[in-house]
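SEVERITY: medium
COMPONENT: batch folding queue
REPORTER: lab tech (J.R.)

DESCRIPTION
The queue accepted two submissions in a row. Attaching both inputs and their returned structure tokens so the on-call engineer can compare them side by side.

ATTACHMENT 1
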Amino acid sequence: MTADSNRTLGIPKAEFLRSVRETLGRSNVPPETRYHHLLETEADLEQRAAEVRHRLERDRPALLDRLAEMATKGGWNVHRAPGVEEALGHIEALAQRLDVTRVVRSGQEVFEQLPVDAALANHGMSITPIVRDETNTREALREEIRQADLGLTGTDYALAETGSLVILPRRGLSRLVSLYPPVHVAVVQPQEVLETLDDLFLLRRLEYYQRSREMGSYLN
């Protein structure tokens, strides 16, 4: 034991915090105003969201072009289909070209409009909706995903700014569908395209209020 053993190790808390404040150019006095986003009400967010949606509707053709450009730069293979039949035809042709035999898909609403199950089954492919019920346990569905050649999902949002897709947690959607199979096909609808991350964060803050402060456990 040394003569200094009774001294406190490290920097005292008060001195450490003072150093941080000085580095950031801040005083020891609390800020006069709170971070402005903390002051927003649900009504404020609804008004701003309406303005964002109006801008997105007005600029949609340019945003679709920008999304395709940025997604391609990010390594996506982008196909722009003018309608449901063309989108379905592209998925069929892609699956055939890749010699796909097993497909898993999410249980999202987009597949109520896009009848991929019957279309792919006509080509001899098995397609499994990843929806848990009394006959499909979590482990059984995970095994289906592990065996799949292709995973098919919709999206919640697509960001033109970054060329990236956003998928939110919900019943009938497993992250593994987009992550585990060697090929992921994402169906993006025009109304899901946002311009920036700021648009996304604004809409998510509004959803936080509208869903009784429940935002799910993750965001992909």
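ATTACHMENT 2
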Amino acid sequence: MPGFTKRAIRNSFIKLLNERPVNQITIRDIVEDCGINRNSFYYHYQDMPSMIEEIVLEEVNVIIQEKPTIDSLEECLDVAISFALENRRAAMHLYNSSNRDVFEQYLWRVCEYAVSTYISTAFAEEPVPEEDLGILIRMYKWECFGAVVDWMRAGMKEDIQAIFHRICQLKRGMLEEVIRRSASGEV
């Protein structure tokens, strides 16, 4: 039964977060929405911030489980913004709250996972030094993270997927050229 209660708390919080900002959600709102008592909430979570952090970490783990491989840079961004697209208002409320750092940690971890998975898979057979692979992972992680944060800062109004996919089209071949140069020792 504890798993059911914890899921109910999580679902109620996300539902409420899609309706209003974090600072307007109380533990009372959550327990009333999911039909439990306050003690049940405190059995599972110390407080609201610990609940938010755990829910965000769970979302990261779900994404990692669901995406064991990533085939393109475009897919890296799609993975990074999946929760935000499915829960636009909740993502904006979390981004604009005092819990922004938790959201940014989530986003950073997802971007890191997505890019690392893509680079490791796409260039597994290439004779590229580990140091160069690490630099590429960092660069594309920054790009992915920055694109999402900029999109959120601007209110999530643009079609970020279309823009990012177009950027990837314009840059097509650049990553392969960097890999070729690194492998051949040109740089």
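NOTES FROM REPORTER
The mean pLDDT is 87.
No errors were logged for either attachment.
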